[in-house]
Amino acid sequence: MMQDKMISEKANEPLLSIRDLVCHFPVRSGLMRRQVGAVQAVDNISFSVAQGEGLGIVGESGCGKSTLINTILQLVPANSGNIIYDGKDVRSMSRSQLRHWRREVQMVFQNPFASLDPRMTIGQIVEEPLVVGKSGLNRNERLKRVIETLEMVGADSRQIDRYPHQLSGGQRQRVGIARALVLRPKLLVLDEPVSALDVSVQAQVLNLLERLRHDLGLTTIFIGHDLSVVSYVSDRIAVMYLGRIVEIGTREEVFKSPKHPYTQALLSAVPSVKKNNGQQRVRLKGDPPNPANPPSGCRFHTRCSYATELCSQSEPKLVVGSEHAAACHFK
Ligand code: SF4
């Protein structure tokens, strides 16, 4: 059994591997703006995403998931750690290697109302990455690619000369997805891509993303605060709390047998899950602590119903590499 697992892991080499990634923001005070602390937005995070796999990262607002993505995408500098993409260390890439890498890794943003330039037509918005990314395609080839990509995401290619304000929220997000796919990336990062949309449109966009993931063999990282939404397009789920991953496992494992009390609390807020397994609602106590001054020991102990003295003194570790792991002393 163990050997089978090792063989399948080897066959499924990671496209992206994050090791001990740290991103702290200095907190300054006084006339001299001396550093008096640090917001531990991303604190020693490690995980891998295999080729073609969908990883979901879920957590409350402020848990560090957006900073984690920005750090991986080199939009925010990391303090330490490794970001290995297709066997290469992204943090030590040259400018030209980084330019090439950015073509393979694209992002879909949360708010299609803000992320599309209102002065550009739909055609120009989707074409722009081909021009900026030096795709080598001529004008006609670019137009053909733009139309193909709009059709791929179910957008009406006759809208190519329209402006974003003339489209509905769902149509705009399809344009945002087309823009991210036009360079044919290998890794697509989705930052809460449906949270700004009406509930009725959310399901359509989630179905589209799941279809594209399978049809194009895309590797995806989907971040969000709603476990049921994130799990819809994810094979594995990582749960983040206060700058750390506290649980990671397959979608089925996390849903059927959540190990960490924080995951249990997130899950019990999903109505369909409560109905299925009859679990009592697990309520979170209080607000998340300040990430500039996280609690000692287990960072969750101030809100955990099962906390003991040990929890406030000793920090539970997440065993990286095991299939379903949780950072809790009692799991
Ligand atoms: Fe709760 Fe303690 Fe487990 Fe942390 S280590 S999740 S405080 S039981």
Automatic annotation (TrEMBL):
Domain ABC transporter: 27-267
Domain of life where this protein originates: Bacteria
Topology versus the membrane: Peripheral membrane protein
Keyword Cell membrane attributed: yes
Main location: membrane
One function term, GO molecular function aspect: ATP binding
Record keywords: ATP-binding, Cell inner membrane, Cell membrane, Membrane, Nucleotide-binding, Peptide transport, Protein transport, Translocase, Transport
Keyword Repressor: no
Locations listed in the record: Cell inner membrane
Location of region: Disordered: 276-296
InterPro entries: AAA+_ATPase, ABC_transp_ATP-bind, ABC_transporter-like_ATP-bd, ABC_transporter-like_CS, Oligopep_ABC_C, P-loop_NTPase
One protein family per Pfam: oligo_HPY
Annotated SUPFAM superfamilies: P-loop containing nucleoside triphosphate hydrolases
Cited function: Probably part of an ABC transporter complex that could be involved in peptide import. Probably responsible for energy coupling to the transport system.
Family in the record: Belongs to the ABC transporter superfamily.
Name under which the protein is recorded: Dipeptide ABC transporter ATP-binding protein
